Amino acid sequence: MTALGNESASAPRTTPLYEVHQDLGANLVDFAGWLMPLRYGSETAEHRAVREAAGLFDLSHMGEIHVTGPQAAAFLDYALVGHLSRVAVGRARYTMITAGDGGVLDDLIVYRLGDDEYLVVANAANHDTVVAALTERVPGFDARVDDRSAGYALIAIQGPEAARILAPLTDADLTQIRYYTGYRLTVAGVSVLLARTGYTGEDGFEIFIEPGTDAPRVWQELTKAGEQYGLKPAGLSARDTLRLEAGMPLYGNELSADITPFDAGLGRVVKFEKEGDFVGRAALAHAAENSRPRRLVGLIGHGRRVLRSGHEVLCDGRTVGSVTSGAPSPTLGVPIAMAYVDGGLDITAGKFTVDVRGRAEDVDVVELPFYKRDR
């Protein structure tokens, strides 16, 4: 996912739910070229609603790119690091698109909608980069890259009550929809792609709506169905603290063109076993076989001061890394952060601190994630 505060030079676009957000009194901000709700009221209350009940998110700024044709599977095996030809129809995979040198251009979720049809979901700020890279890589394959982002809306419902709220509104048996799947079904009488993934660490669903003009109807029906369960609309701020607790990377912070999947501890998404070449294979093979220059870890503060991106991480007074994302954790009640530290560092030895505006703040270095839901 992409970092907050990435403002565009031109006027931001609005999603099909813009008027809904206005009616709810949302604080709207320019995010990746879109006017998006940062919060509706208390971001802490929105965060806790997702952990304890359910939250409703507008994600219509994300990119939706269809890849179709007899060689769609072979093309995606070449263009991305994952083994997409092995994904069954109805299933999804988290994967990445890298440059030739192995640097991450974006992290993606790819849904296989049919034998010769895939949906590639890209981050808003990287949408143009992903479309350009796929278009550049498709010649030589009997496949088509079709950017249909402008026609979509995307709503996510996340939290322990998400399935209970959604169940009466869909023709699907939600008990049969597994994690990382996506099927064409109906919600609130609207034809949608209903997926079960998420970016919060909770159970939940993504509802892809094309055309996006039907989105306000779906949002309102979900809102009504969720009233008795404590459903709240949730903005970008809550989404960021939720994903941070769950140890999920944010593009522009934990992921970038200077970072390989192995640096980020996500080397598992690179599938060297697939046949043939793929973009970045040689560089990624080198990264896999050699010691990592950096390692992504979690930090838990001892005090109350917030750990922020760019703060230096020190071990026994020596700089060993830098914070990439940080915030107070509403669930844990302490400051938390993710940071890259030296790859060979022993995180069990030494006194670790973070330099917060010239003051050393004691921290514990831990493995990610900070939070795991009860399954």
TrEMBL record:
Keyword match Transmembrane: no
GO cellular component terms given for this protein: cytosol; glycine cleavage complex
Domain Aminomethyltransferase C-terminal, residue spans: 294-372
Gene Ontology biological process terms, A to Z: glycine decarboxylation via glycine cleavage system; methylation
Enzyme Commission designation: 2.1.2.10
Segments forming domain GCVT N-terminal: 17-274
Binding-site list for substrate: 206
Keyword annotations: Aminotransferase, Methyltransferase, Transferase
Pfam short name (any one): GCV_T
Molecular functions per Gene Ontology: aminomethyltransferase activity; methyltransferase activity; transaminase activity
Top-rank taxon, per record: Bacteria
Gene3D superfamilies in the record: Aminomethyltransferase beta-barrel domains, Aminomethyltransferase fragment, Probable tRNA modification gtpase trme, domain 1
Record field: catalytic activity: N(6)-[(R)-S(8)-aminomethyldihydrolipoyl]-L-lysyl-[protein] + (6S)-5,6,7,8-tetrahydrofolate = N(6)-[(R)-dihydrolipoyl]-L-lysyl-[protein] + (6R)-5,10-methylene-5,6,7,8-tetrahydrofolate + NH4(+)
Oligomer and partners: The glycine cleavage system is composed of four proteins: P, T, L and H.
UniProt similarity note: Belongs to the GcvT family.
Record's function text: The glycine cleavage system catalyzes the degradation of glycine.
Entry protein name: Aminomethyltransferase
